[in-house]
Amino acid sequence: MTQDDVNALPLLDPAALDRLRDELDEDEGVWRVFVRNFIAQLPARSEKLRLALTTGDLPGTLDAVLSLKTSSQMVGAERLAEYAMVLERSVRIDTREAAPDYVLPRLAAAHLKTITKCSRQTSDLLQRYLDSKPGRA
Length: 137
Hints:
This protein is mainly alpha-helical and 137 residues long. It has one domain (3-132): Up-down Bundle (Four Helix Bundle (Hemerythrin (Met), subunit A)). The protein contains six helices and no strands. The chain has helices spanning 3-8, 14-24, 30-54, 58-74, 78-97, 100-132. Helix 3 runs antiparallel to helix 4 (58-74), helix 3 packs antiparallel against helix 6 and helix 5 runs antiparallel to helix 6 (100-132).
């Protein structure tokens, strides 16, 4: 998938959010707590990824990028999940032939700005989604 293809993905898939709400709303507001937790934890996830990449920590990078990818997929944050997937693929491929302490900081320079910007946009959009749905918990 090219950068243009990733940029064409929606920040959020409302259908995924609606499914999450339907699946978790047996107890009123559980889906809201889940989405709010995603929003609240996103800066820490991004910081963990930044720190692992810039220090050349391969296991930490894989843990952080998988956490970001999986949690993003769960709330329908398609573009952010795809950015994380692209980074994960680059990490796995590029560290086969070169030392992580050399490769990972370069990947940080190539990917973190975009991931950080997308994280902020996603958080804002998710908050607006929460605010637009009736029955706030």
